[in-house]
């Protein structure tokens, strides 16, 4: 009597359990492969894998100072990633964050070094200006896309390299942002330090654990965008546009306003990240200020599978790797190793889901000509 | 007057020399983009090619074998890119980015291990022609692999425009759904096009290392891969346009190096940014013009089904 439902239940539950087990196993396998490759690289180049791991741990997680460093490194990554998530969800791929970070920092530096007024106001203006600068740089690509049909990926990618030269130009010209001359010193290609008042406060006066104020800004932006994306009308339109642009257009979603808006928003997030880097730790505009934050933020968004809240732990993980890499360099192992590990882990993290998708497609008998 | 001519000859020679590595990679990138894959991993392919070329030359003592090793490295990066973006469907740009990070990190990490005396392939001036007054040194006195371009350029053109494979690859780049219905294995063609790109980009990087420089330095390609992408875009996805782009960008680089010595004060930042600005300008002006349009499905991943 009871056997048919029981059998049915078993029939549905066993494949699901098997699929879950297979997912766990593929994750474990691909992570193992990545770590084995990383270990092989370290060992074959004549370093000790255990010492390297220890150094990475000490630089990122051991003690308050290291933890603070990890958080500080994670903040700009999170900002970039959340912007990238919104844009990707809208069906546009912005790849130019590295440039938007730089232009954001440039705009921020210009404001911080010239605006008079009380400190907090200057800081607010600086950060707002950074966001605006980043949005403007993304806006160039948006205008080219919607007016002239230039592909967003190509437009934003090419603008990255233009942005690098814009910054280089600005910090090499004394009438723009180059540091003011000190007699007897050679001028470096960098700006003056931003005034004390326009710097992000460092919070936490514990013995050694302190983090820049940017962390609250990044978390606030993340939570706000996550909420809007999930519950707001705007978020619904964004997701609809990304999932099915034709249906979205029929339903009255304007690709230009919503899609272009998402692109600008992601530029603004990247610009804000630039502003946070500038006012939170570097203090001077330098051509190397972005330091791959824009590129790595994109990787964070990919690994977080375009979920804003998931981007928080992923950004922290990447931040830990960056912080650990800084410490690793001081032990004599080139910090490039961290790039290798990062890339391997990214590929290991995206492989299982993509593989499961491929299996599902094969099983449905539509292999996509693979 | 003769001075002017001599200087012009020198700048021309420098421009051609700087554009040869770009040209190799641009041939490959042209094939790949025609098949609808936009792989920014071309930077990683070139850098990997440069590194393994030097490593291979050191191991075997033969720079020519180093070139082959460079081709192999380019192929390896292409294989990874193809696996992740056209067998699995991970976002091709992020895969390319990850591969670039990987290759840059790995080659810089290992750079110390290939410090050795410089090894270069032989300089082979074309007899008689290389002695021409102004043009000779620029056009007819190169390391021998550069002359491979004379064969490879027509070969790439023939492959894309005159073979069945090329027709299918172009169809896959324009309308993968239609190609699929017609029985063309879409993702397989894209993977094959990527492998062509990997081999040629690896060769380009290898030429840079064991042809021009003789050594490996961390990040020695320094964004040349992106320059190649800009050249293909600037050339409106035509072969001659892409090669013209390479030559133009090589000339901009040569000018940047030469002008300060000649006493001109031109903004170096503008010259460095000019390839990207020119590519953007070309896109903006010709985006809707006929014939200079990119492949319609460029960078759009293909999975079978209703889209």
Can you lay out the helices and strands and say which pair or pack?
The complex is a heterodimer of chains A (370) and B (307).
Chain A: H1 3-44, H2 49-60, H3 63-89, H4 97-114, H5 119-148, H6 152-170, E1 202-203, E2 211-212, H7 214-231, H8 233-243, H9 245-250, H10 255-282, H11 293-303, H12 311-330, H13 336-363
Antiparallel strand pairs in A: 1-2
Helix pairs in contact in A: 1-13, 2-12, 3-7, 3-8, 3-10, 3-11, 3-12, 4-5, 4-6, 4-10, 4-11, 5-6, 5-10, 7-8, 8-10, 11-12, 12-13
Chain B: H1 2-34, H2 42-60, H3 63-86, H4 92-110, E1 123-125, H5 136-140, E2 141-143, H6 148-162, H7 164-174, H8 176-181, H9 186-213, H10 224-234, H11 239-262, H12 268-286
Antiparallel strand pairs in B: 1-2
Helix pairs in contact in B: 1-6, 1-9, 1-10, 1-11, 2-3, 2-4, 2-9, 2-10, 3-4, 3-9, 6-7, 7-9, 10-11, 10-12, 11-12
Description:
The complex is a heterodimer of chains A (370) and B (307). Chain A is mainly alpha-helical. Helix content of chain A is 73%, strand content 1%. The longest helix of chain A has 42 residues, at 3-44. Chain A contains 13 helices and 2 strands. Chain A has a domain at 74-310. A two-stranded antiparallel ribbon of chain A has the order 1-2. Chain A has helices at 3-44, 49-60, 63-89, 97-114, 119-148, 152-170, 214-231, 233-243, 245-250, 255-282, 293-303, 311-330, 336-363, and strands at residues 202-203, 211-212. By secondary structure, chain B is mainly alpha-helical. Chain B has a single domain (2-286), classed as ABC transporter involved in vitamin B12 uptake, BtuC. Helix content of chain B is 70%, strand content 2%. Chain B has a two-stranded antiparallel sheet. In chain B, helix 6 crosses helix 7 (164-174). Chain B is globular. Chain B starts with a helix and ends in a 21-residue tail after the last helix. At the A-B interface, helix 6, helix 11 and helix 13 of A face helix 3, helix 4, helix 9, helix 10 and helix 12 of B.
């Amino acid at each position: 009597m009871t056997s048919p439902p029981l059998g049915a239940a078993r029939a549905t539950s066993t494949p699901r359990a098997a699929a879950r087990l297979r997912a766990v196993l593929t994750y474990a396998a691909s992570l193992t492969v990545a770590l084995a490759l990383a270990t092989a690289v370290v060992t074959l180049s004549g370093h000790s894998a255990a010492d390297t791991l220890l150094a990475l741990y000490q630089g990122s997680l051991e003690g308050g100072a290291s933890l603070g460093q990890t958080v500080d490194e994670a903040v700009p990554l999170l900002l970039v990633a959340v912007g990238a998530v919104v844009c990707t969800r809208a069906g546009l791929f912005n790849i130019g964050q590295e440039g938007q970070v730089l232009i954001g920092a440039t705009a921020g530096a210009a404001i911080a070094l010239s605006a008079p007024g009380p400190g907090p106001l200057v800081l607010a203006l600086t950060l707002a200006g950074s966001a605006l600068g980043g949005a403007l740089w993304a806006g160039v690509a948006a205008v080219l896309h919607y007016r002239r049909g230039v592909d967003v990926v190509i437009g934003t990618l090419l603008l990255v390299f233009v942005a690098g030269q814009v910054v280089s130009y600005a910090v090499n010209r004394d009438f723009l942002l180059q540091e003011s001359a000190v007699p007897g010193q050679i001028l470096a290609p960098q700006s003056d330090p931003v005034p004390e008042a326009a710097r992000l406060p460092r919070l936490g006066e514990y013995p050694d654990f302190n983090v820049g104020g940017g962390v609250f800004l990044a978390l606030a932006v993340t939570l706000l965008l996550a909420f809007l994306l999930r519950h707001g009308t705007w978020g619904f339109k964004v997701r609809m546009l990304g999932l099915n642009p034709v249906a979205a257009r029929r339903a009255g979603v304007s690709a230009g306003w919503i899609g272009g808006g998402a692109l600008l928003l992601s530029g603004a997030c990247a610009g804000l990240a630039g502003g946070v880097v500038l006012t939170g730790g570097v203090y001077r505009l330098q051509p190397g200020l972005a330091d791959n934050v824009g590129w790595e933020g994109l990787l964070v968004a990919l690994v977080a599978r375009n979920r804003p809240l998931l981007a928080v732990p992923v950004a922290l993980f990447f931040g830990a790797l960056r912080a650990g890499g800084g410490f690793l360099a001081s032990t004599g192992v080139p910090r490039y190793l961290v790039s290798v590990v990062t890339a391997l882990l990214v590929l290991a993290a995206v492989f299982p889901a993509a593989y499961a998708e491929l299996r599902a497609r094969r099983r449905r008998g539509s292999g996509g000509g693979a | 007057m003769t001075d002017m001519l001599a200087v012009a000859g020198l700048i021309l020679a420098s421009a051609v020399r700087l554009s040869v590595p770009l040209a190799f990679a641009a041939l490959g990138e042209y094939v790949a983009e025609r098949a609808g894959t936009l792989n920014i991993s071309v930077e990683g392919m070139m850098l990997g090619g440069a590194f393994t070329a030097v490593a291979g030359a050191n191991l075997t003592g033969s720079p020519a074998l180093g070139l082959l090793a460079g081709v192999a490295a380019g192929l390896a990066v292409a294989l990874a890119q193809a696996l992740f973006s056209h067998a699995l469907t991970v976002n091709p740009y992020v895969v390319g980015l990850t591969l670039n990070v990987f290759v840059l990190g790995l080659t810089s990490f290992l750079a110390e291990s290939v410090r050795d005396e410089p090894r270069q392939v032989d300089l082979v001036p074309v007899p008689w022609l290389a002695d021409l007054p102004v043009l000779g040194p620029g056009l007819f006195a190169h390391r021998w692999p550069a002359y491979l371009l004379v064969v490879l350029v027509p070969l790439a053109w023939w492959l894309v425009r005159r073979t069945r494979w090329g027709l299918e690859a172009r169809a896959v780049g324009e309308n993968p759904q239609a190609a699929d219905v017609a029985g063309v294995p879409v993702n397989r063609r894209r993977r094959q096009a990527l492998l062509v790109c990997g081999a040629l980009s690896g060769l380009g990087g290898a030429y840079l290392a064991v042809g021009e420089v003789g050594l490996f330095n961390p990040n020695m390609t320094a964004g040349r891969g992106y320059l190649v992408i800009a050249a293909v875009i600037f050339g409106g996805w035509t072969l001659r346009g892409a090669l013209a782009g390479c030559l133009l960008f090589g000339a901009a680089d040569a000018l940047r190096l030469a002008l300060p010595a000649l006493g001109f004060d031109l903004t170096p930042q503008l010259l460095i940014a000019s390839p990207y600005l020119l590519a953007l300008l070309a896109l903006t002006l010709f985006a809707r013009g006929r014939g200079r349009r990119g492949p319609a499905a460029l960078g759009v991943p293909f999975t079978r089904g209703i889209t």
